[in-house]
């Protein structure tokens, strides 16, 4: 049996850093007139959705992915700001450079959050908490922005911890605290359990981590398939996933929300072709190919449909991606109401994978 000292030696020290209302905070930093006011990043006129909301806006119940018309109903004083993604990327790189001073094991999840494995930190600081405190202080000093951080012995708990004292907070979940901390939380708070899965769990009588822990592995496999073992583990505060600095991107996608609703096939094909062009250019730049095409269509009343098709080989050309995407779209036509958004995602990616040979292309 493994000794307690050896087990402790093997125990990881993980930090999850999450910037506070990142896009909105950057806008408030760069424009003093926005400070202390409810701000939504997103197009008020482009019929998109709220990409981010300041904490002042969140007090009114405004959140990301909310339609602008709904956000304005909730807060008449809401200020919409057009996104500046090039600026957000620059700030994200600044923050990433700070992380790199402490560990090479950095797994970015998005522009504004990342996991860090600081089991052996480059500064020689005595604890992961000390590393997290120093990183947060440097982010504030070098970017004039605030970050929340969670510290724990695995990724799942570090993510929970970073949410616990937002904004501008730091929370530590120790090995002794972990299992009990998980038991008290609603399953909807768990990273990896979305609204649909949470609702399904509720229907099965699973409301908290303790309820989830009471289920057998066989029961969870039966109802949640391959995710069952993951839910069985996290209910016990167990997560063996390592921080992956070379984490492979799982999909490449693009979408567009239209100022005027689309109704006819030609207009939708033209709009979709532009989206496909952007997706394919990204695939070429990143040298990735994918086998699964997913079409997203959102109607004017916000009803949303997705349709997917997986091929036996990686899609080898933009024309092929366009053909499959158009076929998925055409299967939904004609429409009985206007379409406000179309999107295409390519998944089952194979990085630097070989393109299909000539015979396979001709066979299509």
Automatic annotation (TrEMBL):
SUPFAM superfamilies per UniProt: DNA/RNA polymerases, Lesion bypass DNA polymerase (Y-family), little finger domain
Reactions mediated catalytically: DNA(n) + a 2'-deoxyribonucleoside 5'-triphosphate = DNA(n+1) + diphosphate
Residue(s) at site: Substrate discrimination: 23
Note accompanying the cofactor annotation: Binds 2 magnesium ions per subunit.
Gene3D superfamilies: 3.30.70.270, 3.40.1170.60, 5' to 3' exonuclease, C-terminal subdomain, DNA polymerase, Y-family, little finger domain
Domain of life: Bacteria
Function description: Poorly processive, error-prone DNA polymerase involved in untargeted mutagenesis. Copies undamaged DNA at stalled replication forks, which arise in vivo from mismatched or misaligned primer ends. These misaligned primers can be extended by PolIV. Exhibits no 3'-5' exonuclease (proofreading) activity. May be involved in translesional synthesis, in conjunction with the beta clamp from PolIII.
NCBIfam families given in the database record: PRK02406.1
Family from the record: Belongs to the DNA polymerase type-Y family.
Name of the protein: DNA polymerase IV
Organism annotation: Phreatobacter stygius
Gene: dinB
């Amino acid at each position: 049996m493994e000794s307690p000292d050896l087990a402790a030696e093997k125990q990881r020290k993980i930090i999850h850093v999450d910037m506070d209302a990142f896009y909105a905070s950057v806008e408030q930093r760069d424009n003093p007139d926005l400070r202390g006011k409810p701000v939504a990043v997103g197009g008020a006129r482009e019929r998109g959705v709220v990409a981010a909301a300041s904490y002042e806006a969140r007090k009114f119940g405004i959140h990301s992915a909310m339609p602008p018309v709904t956000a304005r109903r909730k807060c008449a004083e809401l200020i919409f700001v057009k996104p500046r993604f090039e600026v957000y990327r620059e700030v994200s790189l600044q923050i990433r450079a700070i992380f790199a001073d402490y560990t090479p094991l950095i797994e970015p999840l998005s522009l504004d959050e990342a996991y860090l494995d600081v089991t052996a930190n480059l500064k020689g600081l005595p604890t992961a908490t000390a590393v997290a405190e120093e990183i947060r202080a440097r982010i504030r000093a070098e970017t004039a922005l605030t970050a929340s951080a969670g510290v724990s012995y695995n990724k799942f708990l570090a993510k929970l911890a970073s949410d616990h004292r937002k904004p501008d907070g730091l929370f530590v979940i120790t090995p002794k605290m972990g299992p009990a901390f998980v038991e008290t939380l609603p399953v909807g708070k768990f990273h990896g359990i979305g609204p649909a899965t949470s609702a399904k769990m509720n229907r099965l009588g699973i409301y908290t981590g303790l309820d989830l822990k009471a289920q057998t592995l066989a029961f969870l496999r039966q109802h949640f398939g391959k995710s069952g073992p993951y839910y069985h583990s996290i209910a016990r505060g167990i997560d063996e996933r390592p921080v992956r600095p070379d984490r492979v991107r799982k999909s490449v996608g693009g979408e567009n929300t239209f100022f005027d609703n689309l109704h006819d096939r030609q207009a939708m094909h033209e709009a979709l072709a532009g989206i496909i062009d952007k997706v394919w250019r990204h695939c070429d730049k990143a040298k990735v190919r994918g086998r699964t095409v997913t079409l997203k269509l959102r109607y004017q009343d916000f009803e949303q449909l997705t349709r997917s098709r997986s091929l036996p080989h990686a899609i080898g050309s933009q024309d092929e991606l366009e053909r499959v995407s158009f076929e998925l779209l055409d299967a939904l036509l004609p429409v009985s109401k206007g379409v406000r958004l179309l999107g295409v995602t390519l998944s089952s990616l194979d990085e630097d994978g070989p393109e299909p040979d000539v015979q396979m292309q001709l066979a299509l």
